[in-house]
């Protein structure tokens, strides 16, 4: 017989019918009737009903159960009984000891009717009380594991780059400035410069999952001021196609892992099917995408060179209708809307060897072949009107034999948002950070 103080997860109780075990969890619901007391206990693996008959001599169990509140943390030790009339897995727990580890105050600050912003104020309770939130982070773990598996198998070295920078990364816009002893510093809006330095350091393929900071005052359902980025950089590439091929294979592998492990639970909880993509993904050049969209009536007011969100959704829907594919690479963005370090094709210097990856019309990745020639980088930075002095450490990486390379940056929250059919990236993040949210 298992020792009474050994914790058993709810999902494993069937293996212990007739034994005395301890279940630790939260009170999900209480039914305190005149003759019987019923308590539903929930842990991260499921729920079980504890059933107690009132009226025993010196009934300390009755008193303990009577004093419970919803979401109190408890340890209930008792005998596991097979009872077919119980809805929760045909099992119940007959208590022999009830320990109230932390009684929850009442009333709770949120319930099932609470709006998203109010739930985010009490995110620890929100995640604890909602099975879909619990599942989301389990799925996130499997997704990251699948990405890492593929990256490791392809020879990637996982790196951890600084998030404090002495100069603003990339264009210098949309960065958070903070005091650093006697001088200013900036939160990294991308590990871009550092992963390129790793390539110059002779680390052939670089992979990182880490925080990214964007001081962008956007209040959309897809933007955050801090998010988790998945970054890859590959040396000795032939062209940008090598980067796109790497990403589509990595995503196909990781999504297949999610579908295999969680596909049924995602279908039951979120009502969506996880479709494992086939490769290669469709590709379309930006100029062709705009031609297709304009033929269909797309006429944006704010952008002539880029795609607005409506355009991204429309071009993705067009290709899904044509090919049945949910994913789409949009390639060859104009130099005017891409960073100075994106390589430009020799025959058309007005374009870049870059791409965005759309999933069901939402941009989840930006990538490119990088310009690895020092003299060309100087020229392209000057064309953008950038000061060379703050870029000194970065530019030095290209003076002493840096190989051709390219890479990508992916937003983990956006991938989860599309995969699970969520309406906002706020729900795909544990503790969301946006222009109006810096707590909890």
Structure description:
This protein has 440 residues and is α+β, with helices and mostly antiparallel strands. The chain has 2 domains: 10-102, OB fold (Dihydrolipoamide Acetyltransferase, E2P); 123-428, Bira Bifunctional Protein, Domain 2 (BirA Bifunctional Protein, domain 2, 2-Layer Sandwich), CATH 3.30.930.10. Helix content is 30%, strand content 25%. It is built from 11 helices and 16 strands. It has helices at residues 60-66, 116-121, 123-129, 131-153, 192-200, 240-270, 286-295, 309-323, 374-383, 392-396, 412-419, and strands at 20-32, 36-43, 46-53, 73-82, 91-102, 157-158, 164-165, 177-180, 183-187, 205-213, 226-235, 283-285, 327-331, 354-359, 362-369, 405-411. The strands form 3 sheets. An 8-stranded mixed beta sheet has the order 6-10-11-16-15-14-13-12, with helices on both faces. It has a 5-stranded mixed barrel with strand order 1-2-3-5-4. Strands 7-9-8 form a 3-stranded antiparallel beta sheet, with no helix packed on it. Strand 4 and strand 5 (91-102) form a beta hairpin. Helix 3 (123-129) crosses helix 4. The chain is elongated.
Could you provide a short overview of the structure?
The chain is of the alpha+beta class and 440 residues long. It is built from eleven helices and 16 strands.
Task: Compute the CA-based radius of gyration.
Answer: 27 Å
Look at the structure and give the CATH class of the largest domain.
Answer: Alpha Beta
Taking all residues together, what is the mean pLDDT? 93
Number of strands: 16
CATH superfamily of the largest domain: Bira Bifunctional Protein, Domain 2
- Strand percentage lies at 25-35%
């Amino acid at each position: 017989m298992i020792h009474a103080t050994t914790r058993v997860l709810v999902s494993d109780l069937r293996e212990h019918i007739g034994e005395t075990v301890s279940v630790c969890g939260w009170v999900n619901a209480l039914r305190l009737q005149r003759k019987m007391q019923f308590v539903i206990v929930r842990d991260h693996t499921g729920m079980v009903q504890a059933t107690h008959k009132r009226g025993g001599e010196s009934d300390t169990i009755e008193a303990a159960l009577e004093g419970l509140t919803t979401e109190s943390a408890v340890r209930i030790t008792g005998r596991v009984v097979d009872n077919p009339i119980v809805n929760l897995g045909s099992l119940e727990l007959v208590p022999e000891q009830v320990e109230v580890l932390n009684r929850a105050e009442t009333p709770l600050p949120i319930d099932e009717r609470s709006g998203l912003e109010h739930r985010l104020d009490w995110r620890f309770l929100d995640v604890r009380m909602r099975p879909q939130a619990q599942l989301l982070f389990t799925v996130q773990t499997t997704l990251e594991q699948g990405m890492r598996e593929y990256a490791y198998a392809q020879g990637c070295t996982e790196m951890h780059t600084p998030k404090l920078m002495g100069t603003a990364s990339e264009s210098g816009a949309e960065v958070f400035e903070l005091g650093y002893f006697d001088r200013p510093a900036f939160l990294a809006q991308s590990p871009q410069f550092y992963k390129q330095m790793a390539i110059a350091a002779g680390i052939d393929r670089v992979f990182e999952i880490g925080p990214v900071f964007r001081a962008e005052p956007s209040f959309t359902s897809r933007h955050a001021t801090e998010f988790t980025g998945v970054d890859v950089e590959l040396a000795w590439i032939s062209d940008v196609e090598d980067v796109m091929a790497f990403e589509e294979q990595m995503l196909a592998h990781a999504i297949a892992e999610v579908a295999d492990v969680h596909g049924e639970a995602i279908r039951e909880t979120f009502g969506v099917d996880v479709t494992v993509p086939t490769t290669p993904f469709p590709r379309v050049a930006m100029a062709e995408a705009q031609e297709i969209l304009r033929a269909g009536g797309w006429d944006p007011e704010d952008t002539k060179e880029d795609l607005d969100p409506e355009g991204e959704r429309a071009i993705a829907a067009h290709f899904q209708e044509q090919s049945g594919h949910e994913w789409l690479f949009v390639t060859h963005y104009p130099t005017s809307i891409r960073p100075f370090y994106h390589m430009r094709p020799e025959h058309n210097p007005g374009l870049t060897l870059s791409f965005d990856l759309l999933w069901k019309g939402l941009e989840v990745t930006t990538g490119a072949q990088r310009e690895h020639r020092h003299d060309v980088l100087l020229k392209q930075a000057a064309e953008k009107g950038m000061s060379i002095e703050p870029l000194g450490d970065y530019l030095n990486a290209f003076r002493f034999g840096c190989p051709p390379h390219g890479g990508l940056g992916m937003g983990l929250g956006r991938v989860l948002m599309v995969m699970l059919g969520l309406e906002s990236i706020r729900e795909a993040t544990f503790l969301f950070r946006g222009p109006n949210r810096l707590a909890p």
